[in-house]
Amino acid sequence: MRLVDTEPGQSRYAALASAMRARIVAGEWPPGSAIPAEQTLAAEHGVALGTMRRALDLLAEQGLLERVHGRGTFVRQGLSGAPMLRFFRFGADEREAPRSRILARDVLAAPAEVARALACGPGEPALRLKRLRSVGGQPALLEEIWLPLPAFQALADGDAAAWGDLLYPLYAERCGVHVHRAVDTIGFGNLGAAQARALQLPAGHPCARVQRQAYDLAGRCVEWRTTRGDAHAFHYTVSIT
Amino acid sequence: MRLVDTEPGQSRYAALASAMRARIVAGEWPPGSAIPAEQTLAAEHGVALGTMRRALDLLAEQGLLERVHGRGTFVRQGLSGAPMLRFFRFGADEREAPRSRILARDVLAAPAEVARALACGPGEPALRLKRLRSVGGQPALLEEIWLPLPAFQALADGDAAAWGDLLYPLYAERCGVHVHRAVDTIGFGNLGAAQARALQLPAGHPCARVQRQAYDLAGRCVEWRTTRGDAHAFHYTVSIT
DNA sequence: AAGTGGTCTAGACCACATC
DNA sequence: ATGTGGTCTAGACCACTTG
User: Fold this and answer.
1) What are B165-168's contacts with CB under 8 Å, separation 24+?
2) Which terminus of chain A has a lower count of CB atoms within 10 Å, N or C?
């Protein structure tokens, strides 16, 4: 029977949740796989079923686990799509899948801000991508993406044209990196000359700027991205309570 | 003992939650007051304590109730502040409370879009406010606010200069309207000449536009508001999982 | 001390998915 | 049929708040 350190003031189920989180982050059950049944885990930790359920519910709320009635409890896969387009409304048919094209791929010294976020030494080499996303054949979003380098070496080589339209599944397949959480910071700016050209807009045109930092299960920042698109196409809804 | 219709496929606690929601919306316990103890409610409905707790937890998650250990369970007051400024970063000292000034107050026929949202007949009279919010003495946000009219008659009369800096507490005190939920839609645009003048910016300057619809406990739209501020001061962070 | 919500238990039974 | 998660019960005990 596994014992759990119970800090005073910490409830049993919270301690159990931490313990389970540690086992998941350590890779005991890889993303997408099922963890043992509630009964098994409860017995293993010597607690009542309800207490273990409470712990697992907590982790599910936090997005670490996914519970499926009748099938089991699973470690969540990475974020499915890259829902960058949810911030924009372009006239084109929404059902049509957006297309991606890699405009540039270079190994460069990361700027200070990027290096700090990615936790690689300042000036250390990183992989930089420039990417254009199109909707209905029209250029819509321009992205600049920084990836830390030993981890993403697999993307520095090979044919980028064969990558497909979604990056996160690619990260998972080719580099074993699962994006689990992301923080987007929205701001406003103006397009530089080259950026405007890529988006077929006049230079200096107003743009919405979304700066994203993406994290894996262990909380490491694994992607630093800036996305720009026509400010007039920007549209976002927030519900507050 | 109160009985609850249990639709097939609906769990007991969900049905209980609906029943409690109805009693709250009906005003059985006004905002800010405590509801009876869990034990009492459980007995009243003839269910186990755990089941009633589950129902109340659900309503708490939905923001309808607020649970306080040792004191009781309370019907939530309206949204505390009007956190419109969370969308912006102005240079001024953040600790300093923003100030408000009413620029105009008129009873007018509501435009079609507003009338539809407020569920008053198109062209029926409504109260329109124009309001300027300043931070550190500098004009920052310009607001246009529409309120449905029999309900807000108390604000059509009296001295608007004495209103103070927050509107939602005012709605509660003077009109008995509690704002419980709001939906903000963000976009970018350009300032008209008069708007720019009020904000001390050049005409045509880019602005962020936040369109808010606020709802009371019963789900009625009780406020329609558009807020504009310098697009370059706009700044918002979203976490996704 | 009394009343409130929060935690934990042990067990029964139900609903869903799979073989 | 079996195994999974979801619901519900009845009760004990703990932690926090108030008079």
Assistant:
1) B165/B97, B165/B98, B165/B99, B165/B100, B166/B81, B166/B82, B166/B100, B167/B82, B167/B100, B167/B131, B168/B78, B168/B79, B168/B80, B168/B81, B168/B82
2) N
